[in-house]
Amino acid sequence: MDIYLASGNAHKVQEFNTLLATVDPRISSKVRILSAAEVGGMPKVVEDAGSFLGNARKKAVALAELLPPGGWALSDDSGLSVDALKGAPGVESAYYAGPQGDSAANLRKLMAAMAGVDEAHRGANFSCVLCLATKGREPLFFRGRCDGRIAFQAAGKGGFGYDPVFIPDGFAQSFAELGEEQKNKLSHRAKAWSQLSAWLLRIYG
User: Fold this and answer.
1) Could you report how far apart the first and last alpha carbons of the chain are, in Å?
2) Going along 17-174, which residue ranges are E strands?
3) What is the CATH number of the domain that holds 102?
4) DSSP-derived 3-state class of residue 53
5) Range of the domain at 133
6) Cα separation, 153 vs 38, whole angstroms
7) Does pLDDT of 11 surpass 80?
8) pLDDT by residue (tens digit) across 52-107?
9) Which long-range contacts (CB under 8 A, 24 or more apart) does 19-26 make?
10) 124-171 per-position pLDDT tens digit
11) How many domains does the chain have?
């Protein structure tokens, strides 16, 4: 089964292949996760659905139209929602500081918005919706969420995006400090992937 990732983000391709390596060999030996670059690149999609699920659907369906017979498109729409900011940045997480999608600028804007917010009100969560689509079938959805809080300052060099300031519940370190192996046990994406893996196991198990 060939799954093409509906993203131009090379880091996501790497992250999903790392996740694939952790699943039952009955799955990992029969599934390949490939970049959209293999079929000419991810088509332009306006992510204006207003929800993680809606945006994920748009991306997966758009890429599925370009795939060879039997190919599946996998999209990931995810983001950070902060309680004190009434759920922002939410679906705008990648473009919080502007359309250029500058991760460093997004992080600076978030920390400026959280300046002065006390420990008790720094709750946040990462949410992820995975959408798996192929021609002629209704898309499938898998969801994951990781609760935590926003740190007072960035720490760690791992991960990407908001990872240096997100501390998952039960830990004192940020995602960026915990490292990829630990993050892949806790993250919103890992939890959504666990659901997708269970679906794959029903096929190949």
Assistant:
1) 14
2) 32-35, 72-82, 123-133, 140-150, 166-168
3) 3.90.950.10
4) helix
5) 2-204
6) 39
7) no
8) 999 999 999 999 999 998 899 999 999 999 999 999 999 999 999 998 889 999 99
9) 19/184, 19/189, 19/190, 19/193, 22/184, 23/197, 23/200, 23/201, 24/197, 24/201, 24/205, 26/201, 26/204, 26/205
10) 999 999 999 999 999 999 999 999 999 999 999 887 899 999 999 999
11) 1
Q: How confident is the model at residue 110 (pLDDT cuts 50, 70, 90)?
A: very high
5 near 167, Cβ under 8 Å? no
What residues are paired with 4 via a beta bridge? 34, 73
DSSP state of 95: G
Instruction: Assign 169 to helix, strand or coil.
Output: coil
CA–CA gap between residue 88 and residue 92 (Å, rounded): 8
Q: Are residues 187 and 193 in contact, defined by beta-carbon separation less than 8 angstroms?
A: no
- Provide the annotated active-site residues: 77
